[in-house]
Design a protein that fits this description.
Oligomer: single chain
Largest sheet: none
Radius of gyration: 21 Å
Number of strands: 0
CATH topology of the largest domain: Serine Threonine Protein Phosphatase 5, Tetratricopeptide repeat
Number of domains: 2
Strand content: under 5%
CATH superfamily of the largest domain: Tetratricopeptide repeat domain
CATH class of the largest domain: Mainly Alpha
Order of helices and strands: HHHHHHHHHHHH
CATH architecture of the largest domain: Alpha Horseshoe
Distance between the termini: 65 Å
């Protein structure tokens, strides 16, 4: 059994007493092993908090709309705990990121502080369907998207930095990397990614135009922003209402 399998089984409580004791002894004597185990524990806790908060927000919305019986509340809270546990199990394979150096995480979703991005931008859902590729690359992509799904865009961006060195033609890496850069206040890097997607077939044409307009606004290039905003309006994009609103405000 390799090191990562041992950590998996330890954190999930799958080891017998002798196995648990063996791991605890190794933690006491093997600093690298102890750091990797603790880093993985932090990731699991992070996602548990994220999922727990997500379900609690949904429940609060339901309560706002109508009275929820005590029975429904019990069922819903059981679902909260189940969702958190399921995510923790999924994350057991998440180790590539632990050795990258930065193991500090934010306990919550990160919002960009760029004014137009903060006001008008909402990160798209993860529709990433990856093809089979090298194990190390596939692992990095999974790591990046797990952090993306948890709203940890700064940490996801760090992994996309590495991925873009070898996956610079991968549309999904460019697209979700760009979103991660934008949400972590790196608009120039986001724009570079989005510009590289222009020659590739995709389902995010409207989103990419909209994102680029926001980046130009946030970086002070209003003329380029206006040009794209007019294109958004003239093509009947789903963002045309917001585009008109912004155009009116910057005339």
């Amino acid at each position: 059994m390799d090191k990562f399998d041992i950590i998996d089984d330890y954190l999930l409580g799958h080891l017998d007493d002798a196995g648990m004791k063996s791991v605890e002894e190794r933690i006491a004597t093997d600093t690298e092993f102890a750091e990797e185990l603790e880093g993985h524990r932090k990731i699991i806790n992070l996602i548990q908090v994220h999922e727990d908060n997500r379900w609690r927000r949904k429940f609060a919305e339901m309560e706002e709309k109508q009275k929820v019986s005590k029975e429904v509340r019990k069922v819903f809270m059981i679902r909260v705990l189940s969702a958190a546990a399921a995510v923790a199990i999924i994350l057991v394979s998440y180790f590539s990121f632990l050795s990258s150096g930065d193991n500090e995480f934010d306990n919550g979703e990160i919002a960009s502080t760029l004014p137009y991005t903060h006001e008008y931008f909402e990160p798209p859902a993860n529709y990433f369907m990856q093809r089979s590729r090298g194990r190390s690359v596939e692992s990095k992509i999974s790591d990046a998207m797990l952090l993306y799904d948890a709203g940890q865009y700064k940490q996801a961006a760090q992994i996309f930095d590495d991925l873009l060195e070898t996956e610079a033609e991968n549309f999904n890496v460019l697209f979700y990397g760009g979103v991660s850069y934008l949400m972590s206040n790196q608009p120039e890097k986001a724009l570079e990614c989005f510009m590289k997607t222009e020659t590739k077939e995709n389902i995010f044409d409207q989103e990419l135009q909209w994102y680029k307009s926001l980046i130009y606004l946030d970086t002070g290039d209003n003329e380029k922003a206006k040009k794209i905003l007019l294109e958004i309006i003239n093509t009947g994009s789903k963002y045309q209402k917001n585009a008109r609103e912004i155009l009116e405000s910057i005339k």
